[in-house]
Specification:
By secondary structure, the protein is an all-alpha fold. It has helices at residues 2-33, 36-41, 53-64, 66-98, 103-111, 122-132, 138-161, 166-174, 179-187, 192-208, 211-216, 224-230, 239-273. The protein is 76% helix and 0% strand.
């Protein structure tokens, strides 16, 4: 009887937590479905009389150019994620299998990029970008995002590569595989799980970034989160337009998680198991 009561109490707590987590999402969706007039005249939990999310999105696209900045964020996420995956997987393979001198020190130096708050990079980056002409350019933003994504990505790949048996590597060497072929044909094809982890975490972070996009861009190269932030304006903006834009900008990250979910848990387990 006591175990049954504890189970009921546990389920009750979980249901309350789930409802508390879903309430903000529910309010965002309701606000996006209402017209500005309905939102002003109704309580936040009341259902709309007419679905206005399409017209809200049209106004957001027209006034704040969400479609242009959407393309920018898509480019930054894909390019930054791919560069981080390639560079960090090669670095992880080199540190674990090729074992250069001071390999652990090299790892610590690279990984230390995750130990400091990103705000300390802003002033040096701003000055450097102005000196080199990278300020307010897509190339500059891709380089920044790629560099910031590499330390955590290296941590994931390094942990995963320690779990690959030595026997596989030795058999490949007997068959004539050098370091490059060993990486390209043995290690990289087995890295689908950690690659999914890196892609999900890093592309999502790039997509949701506001700080670097706001400081290092000024015009048409800005990411979508900066555009979404400017929709609030001085007086708070038009809430249904903002909520419709928020839902629109959330689709890529949700879709990415759905596509990579089968690899995500196994990738996290394998990557941390090697540490």
């Amino acid at each position: 009887m006591g175990a049954k009561i504890r189970r009921i109490f546990t389920y009750f707590i979980l249901i309350v937590l789930v409802l508390a987590w879903l309430l903000p999402i529910f309010s965002v969706v309701l606000a996006a479905l209402k017209s500005p007039a309905e939102f002003s005249s109704q309580k936040f939990y009341e259902l709309p009389g007419k679905i206005s999310i399409v017209s809200n999105l049209k106004m957001a696209f027209k006034q704040w150019k969400l479609y242009e900045y959407f393309t920018n964020s898509l480019i930054y996420s894909i390019c930054g994620g791919l560069i981080a995956i390639i560079a960090s997987s090669m670095a992880g393979f080199s540190i674990i299998r090729l074992k250069p001198k001071f390999n652990f020190l090299l790892f610590i130096i690279i990984y230390s990029g995750t130990l400091f708050p990103f705000q300390i990079y802003l002033i040096p980056l701003y000055k450097f970008f102005n000196m080199t002409g990278l300020y307010d350019t897509r190339i500059g933003m891709i380089l920044v995002y790629s560099a910031l994504c590499i330390p955590f990505s290296l941590f994931v790949y390094r942990g995963f590569y320690t779990t690959i048996p030595r026997e596989i590597e030795e058999a490949a060497k007997i068959d004539g595989c050098g370091p490059l072929k060993l990486y390209a044909y043995i290690f990289l094809p087995q890295s689908s799980a950690p690659t999914a982890v890196v892609a999900l975490f890093q592309m999502t972070w790039i997509w949701n970034d506001l700080l670097f996009g706001m400081i290092l861009t000024r015009t048409d190269s800005r990411p979508i989160m900066v555009s979404l932030a400017t929709m609030s304006g001085v007086s708070g903006g038009i809430i249904p337009y903002i909520m419709a834009g928020t839902i629109f900008t959330s689709f890529p990250t949700v879709l990415l998680f759905i596509l990579l979910r089968r690899y995500f848990i196994s990738g996290m387990v394998l990557s941390t198991a090697g540490e």
